[in-house]
Amino acid sequence: MADITRAEVASLIAEEYGPQVIKAATQGSTALAAFPTVNMGTKTRNMPVLATLPEADWVTDTDNTGVKPTSQATWANKTLVAEEVAVIVPIHENTLDDATEDILAQLADLGGQAIGKKLDEAVFFGNDKPVTWTSPDLLSAATSAGNLFQVQDGAASADDIYGSILQAAGALADDGFDPETLVSKRGLMYQFANLRATDGTPILTGTSVSGFDTYWNRNGAWAPASATAFVVDSATVRIGVRQDITVKFLDQATLGSGQNQINLAERDMVALRFKARFAYVLGNPVTPETGAQTYGVAAITPDTESGS
Fold first, then answer.
1. At what angle do helices 103-125 and 6-28 cross, to 10 degrees?
2. What is the rounded end-to-end Cα distance, in angstroms, of the chain?
3. Residues 6+ apart with CB under 8 A from 170
4. DSSP 44
5. What are 172-214's pLDDT values in tens digits?
6. pTM score, two decimals?
7. 20 to 30 Å CA-CA from 97: which of 120, 231, 258, 303?
8. What are the CA-CA distances from residue 280 to residues 45, 132, 237, 286 (Å)?
9. CA-CA distance, 256 to 254, in Å (whole number)?
10. What is the domain partition of the chain in residue ranges?
């Protein structure tokens, strides 16, 4: 029987762990879970966003010569541009041989989570956001729209934070948006779980905040000093997926440069390379309530002067 080649081993590893990486990234990325995704057939894709609304007027017809007014709606393009995010994780062959558990499976989980974290950091806070993603991150968009609601996160009760979330949702609703999505740091879930009515019964039960599709960030991407939570009209957000996360087995490559260079073959090491291509866009449609383009995002922010 013919020996299995290195190429066949690499293919088998990719087939076995590829779906696991995709699952880990999808579960690990709050943005992928919370917002609609768009499958992209090319690197760029244009999406029309309503820029102006038509206006109606009364027709004066006292002498049967009334003329109906004309108006028009216009659209502006938002462009999704797919950019690559990747990581290579090397490991010594002896570690694999001596391990009592499936180390490659654990690496697949960690690689997928790392990609999900990087995506969340860019979408929520603009950290290392690709320059081709011209839409502002959620925090910048909320700031631009004047939708910041500040609480003393360290000193205020969970009830105060909950009240600020409802204020933020009300402001978005007044602007013509549907503020149905809440995204927050994971610790807030436990603060809310401790909210009690006067009779001692929990006010909020389960992992969802009442009235919201709720997503708790679990991958370490959250910046608590910048925001406690976001309230978002998720219909204005799109995450483009040009290429699902792929995993490739490496055993002959030379990684890095200079003193950090690693030759896998010389050091009896192997590596898993994870990569994906994502895009992000945030629409700023004109709404009847505002008559102007604005963002359907609000942020609950901590009081920086309180030291929280």
1. 40
2. 66
3. 179
4. E
5. 999 999 999 999 988 888 888 887 767 777 767 667 788 899 9
6. 0.81
7. 258
8. 11, 9, 8, 20
9. 7
10. 6-53+74-285+296-306
